[in-house]
Design a protein that fits this description.
Order of helices and strands: HHHHHHHEE
Strand content: under 5%
Helix content: 40-55%
Number of domains: 2
Structural class: mainly alpha
Radius of gyration: 17 Å
Strand order of the largest sheet: 1-2
Number of strands: 2
């Protein structure tokens, strides 16, 4: 957004993890802060007008009407985690939170470059988003060590996807996004 520079654009004002979003990964969205950021985001306009340069929780009116129904369904990332992510940013501090996001992004970039058969981007982005960093690190390291480098990419991708899904299932985490069905409200996964 013009005339609006954020301190930590790796995570959105609302707590969404921009670095792990498929649109950001693909270079299609710069997020809500700085220069060419999402020009239409009402939260970014509000934050700019109120002088908030990091996260909405810094505003005395948070949570406000801009957050009503914002987590009813997912967009490209799990919006249902916004409040939890905002709490984690407050608990850890923005610097530590962003460092963890950046490490998750390195893992995600490796998954997409070396373990993707062209059909796993959404799964890998969602796994990087929802799984804790230590779990993501452990699972990907174990699969990388167990799978021969000459295995066809389709099989490699299937093994990585299965391992990430198993880790998520063990923790009661879903790796499917809750997409809005046109005219029907929230779709259940």
């Amino acid at each position: 957004m013009k005339d609006f520079d954020r301190v930590h654009p790796q995570a959105a004002l609302c707590g969404l993890n921009c670095l792990l979003c498929p649109l950001n990964v693909g270079g299609y969205c710069p997020g809500c802060g700085g220069g060419a950021g999402n020009q239409g985001c009402p939260r970014a306009r509000c934050a700019r007008d109120r002088g908030i340069t990091d996260f909405c929780f810094q505003c005395g009116q948070y949570p406000c009407a801009l957050y009503d129904h914002s987590s009813d369904y997912d967009s490209f990332v799990p919006t249902g985690q916004m409040e939890e992510d905002m709490r984690r940013i407050q608990e850890l501090g923005a610097e530590a939170y962003v460092r963890a996001l950046e490490e998750k992004r390195v893992i995600l970039d490796t998954l997409l470059a070396e373990w993707n058969d062209g059909r796993r981007k959404s799964l890998y982005c969602t796994a990087a988003y929802r799984l804790e960093l230590d779990v993501l690190r452990t699972v990907t390291s174990q699969v990388q060590a167990a799978v021969p480098g000459d295995m066809p990419v389709r099989e490699r991708a299937a093994r990585m996807a299965a391992a990430l899904q198993a880790a998520a299932d063990t923790r009661g985490i879903t790796l499917k996004l809750n997409k809005k069905v046109k005219g029907k409200g929230r779709k259940q996964t």
